[in-house]
Input
Amino acid sequence: MTPAILYFSSQQASWRVQLDTLLSAYGQSIEWQAVQNINQSPALSIVLLEENGISEQDWPFLPSRKTIVIVDSWSLKSSVQWIKRGAANCFARDDERLAAWLVSELSQFSIHRAPKAEDDILQVIIDAIPAPIFFKDKLHIYQGCNTAFCQSLGVPREKVIGYSVYDVAPKHLADTYYKADTQLLNQGGAQRYEADVQFSDGSIHEIEFNKAVFKKSNGEALGLVGVMLDITERNQLMRKLDKTSRTDPLTGISNLREFNLIIHDELNQQKQFEKRLCLMTLDIDFFKKINDKFGHSGGDQALQLIAEWLQKKLRSTDTLFRVGGEEFYILMRDIDIENAFKIAERLCKGMATHTFLINQQSVHITLSAGVIELSPSTDLETALDMVDKALYEAKSDGRNCVCPVYQ
Output
């Protein structure tokens, strides 16, 4: 006779010898395998666990195994509690009825149920739907799914039905699904959310889950049904469009919209963490002369070269924006006005001595700048107006210089 496999918690080592002797007396051959945690045993297996060795983290695994909870002192109340959590049964350590239950269960394992009819109407209907569909009972155990679900996860239907989400998905993802299912079963109704799913080829897809609870006539939840919609391409397109809307198409750096989106977050962090924050405004001197000499294509090339040069000169904590034709912002984090002013001066001097090559001709370009330290006591609109005036003052002072705002 091929021995049946029973899994047991390691602290039951001495006690299981007595149980094995008892089962052997009734012709039941057992292969015992010790486990430290319930998830080390395969789904659908029989597992004997000590009550004091079961943690709340083990509860999701109880229903997908035939879990027997062994207690020191049996009571109807505690037994029902464990059964409601998904355990198959609960016995006291010295209860010989456990042996009878095991003999009954192991005998049933040898009886093969007749295969389900291939033309099962519900299965035919849901298999025709290209979106993955599944349904679970109230203990989070899969009771059905369609072909698309099996193909997406790369798991055959016989490895889904009777199993839990922890048996078909990585734990860090299964935790998300289990938490959402628990909330839905407790609240009832419908649920919609997005989460990552690992497909059969190992790729991660962004999935929109649409779930709903089905109930008995008395309102008690029987389980839930879910449909998975793959929104990976849609979300990628939306992110691409969003990035495009935040990026200057000519230079590839951030634009004014991006500045307006992030500046308020930066100001909030400044208030919360008392960080220093400065803003530099830059304008290219006599840019019209570049356009007149080289045409608009030459002017575009100049802007691209200037943006590239500025990017290389900035600190990793600074962000460059093109906010107008030849006007730029530099948002400078964790710096005071004195040091921001020194950086602005270095940029002016550095650009003035740098040679740009436009249409195979050497060109020298200068810039004018205004710089201000943003203060929580001054609203953004006022600060922008002040630093713009400083920029124009630098222009009036002969260009190729920096005018700071000291508040």
